[in-house]
Design goal:
alpha/beta, four-stranded mixed β-sheet, 14 helices, globular, binds ligand EPZ
């Protein structure tokens, strides 16, 4: 298994190209199941999770063509997806257990074929993560859903019907699943308390391009008019806001100065506000945004994760890594997932001073971190260790690199190009 070796102490300087969003690409690829016409997606990042989704969609009968992105230094892929017919309505355990986002095929298969059999994803490293809201919403649209042998077995023999459904809790995945189901349902679906993450807006815009009228994009009430058939479309995936925030924090950690090309400041406003409070400057540029920390120490700030537009849970670990070196204390509260603090013991091995009390972590800044051998059990936790390593004395080795490869395209090359002492060690 590959490892990452980082020797800290170098300032990051230069530019980093931000890739297309992983969490927007995954549901956008699933939307291809809704139509027998081609869907072309540009700016898809090259990541393990995208490969896993391709593997799943091919099982369902999707033909996928891949070509390199056309534009210069950016390395995204253009995917052409076409589902002339659904070959199988089963999403098997061996794929769903690797990637929870596989559960997104449920609504689309049910809407197009009137049947779906999707493995239950089970718990994962960041919490129990049930799918009860996906099920309740689809039931409100007329589906019958049972659990049999670890699989969700769903049927809608007369097709799905438009319905009004209010989410009792904000869920990104359940909102996406119901939007796709609603696209081919009979009549109008109204989703209240829908997630407002930019990835939802991206899916909505793509469905609109495929001929599905959707109102309220970007708000907590989405109205989707079901259609009989979707048309061919071409869509460009939005830049990855979590990758943008991650590199902004890495730059801040090294007191660096980097332009994040294609990064969009308006997608990370809450995180940007926290970073500014900590003493980091972020400014929009014609090509993206510039992050600098050129004078003064980092200051401790408190953050609490919340659904968008709140501070993203997917940046919580990275913010904590940054706060380990701040002057003063920082209270970091995680309200979205119940056990997303696995990075804490690993950061402690590097000399961080963090105390967990229920859903909050109190981080007391330390004057220095020291390199160590570390590993993490999820994507964002792993990258938080890389951020800590960039400012640590000596060398850090991050094991279990496959977590990072699920969500960061060419991380070591992007950081090395800005002066980091970093290498991937095969093994
Ligand atoms: C998406 O996961 C993202 N994944 C996650 O990114 C992200 O952390 C999360 O949204 C929150 O922003 C993708 O987009 C592929 P949720 P999702 O449903 O859709 C509870 C990363 O690192 N819930 O919004 O699975 C759930 O347990 C990943 O890139 C229910 O109770 O998240 C959680 O506490 C990790 N019942 C909360 O809601 C349900 O039926 C929010 O989860 C569904 C969710």
């Amino acid at each position: 298994m590959d490892r990452l070796r980082i020797t800290g102490g170098r300032q990051l300087k230069g530019e980093i190209a931000i890739s297309g969003s992983k969490n927007a690409s995954l549901p956008l690829m699933v939307a291809a199941l809704l139509s027998d016409q081609p869907l072309v997606l540009e700016n898809v990042p090259r990541l393990a999770d995208i490969d896993t989704m391709m593997q799943l969609l091919r099982k369902h009968g999707v033909e996928i063509g891949e070509s390199p992105g056309s534009d210069g230094h950016r390395h995204g892929t253009t995917l052409e997806l076409r589902t002339a017919r659904i070959a199988s309505t089963t999403a098997p355990y061996d794929i769903v257990r690797k990637m929870r986002a596989s559960v997104l095929v449920l609504g689309a298969l049910l809407a197009r074929e009137g049947a779906a059999r999707v493995s239950l994803p089970g718990g994962c490293a960041i919490g129990a993560r049930p799918v009860d809201l996906h099920i309740a919403g689809l039931k409100a649209m007329g589906a019958d859903i049972d659990v049999d042998g670890g699989y969700l077995v769903a049927r809608a023999s007369k097709g799905l019907k438009g319905a009004r459904y209010t989410f009792p809790k904000v869920s990104v995945g359940a909102t996406e699943n119901l939007m796709m189901a609603a696209a081919l349902a009979k009549g109008t679906t109204v989703l209240d308390n829908a997630a407002r993450e930019p990835e939802i807006g991206d899916l909505a815009n793509c469905l609109v391009a495929m001929g599905v009228p959707i109102h309220g994009i970007g708000t907590e009430t989405l109205t989707i008019e079901g259609v009989d058939r979707l048309q061919a479309a071409r869509h460009r995936v939005i830049p990855d806001r979590i990758e943008t925030g991650t590199y902004a924090m890495a730059v801040a950690m090294t007191a660096g100065d980097v332009e994040l090309v294609d990064g969009r400041l308006e997608l990370i406003e809450t995180a940007a506000a926290a970073l500014r409070q900590a003493g980091v400057s972020l400014d929009a540029t014609p090509r993206g945004l510039r992050v600098q920390r050129t004078n003064g120490a980092l200051r401790g700030v408190d953050v609490m994760t919340e659904p968008y537009p709140g501070f993203p849970t997917d940046l919580q670990a990275q913010m904590m890594a940054l706060m380990t070196r701040a002057e003063g204390a920082s209270m970091i509260t995680e309200t979205v997932f119940e056990s997303r603090f696995m990075h804490v013991p690993e950061l402690a091995r590097m000399g961080a001073n963090v105390t967990i009390h229920h859903e909050s972590a109190l981080v007391r800044g330390v004057p220095k971190l020291r390199g160590a051998e570390v590993m993490a059990t999820d994507l964002r936790a792993s990258v938080s260790l890389a951020i800590a390593a960039l400012a640590a004395e000596g060398t850090t080795t991050i094991n279990r690199l496959y977590h990072l490869d699920r969500g960061y395209e060419r991380l070591e090359r992007k950081l090395a190009a800005c002066g980091a002492d970093i290498e991937r060690v095969a093994g």
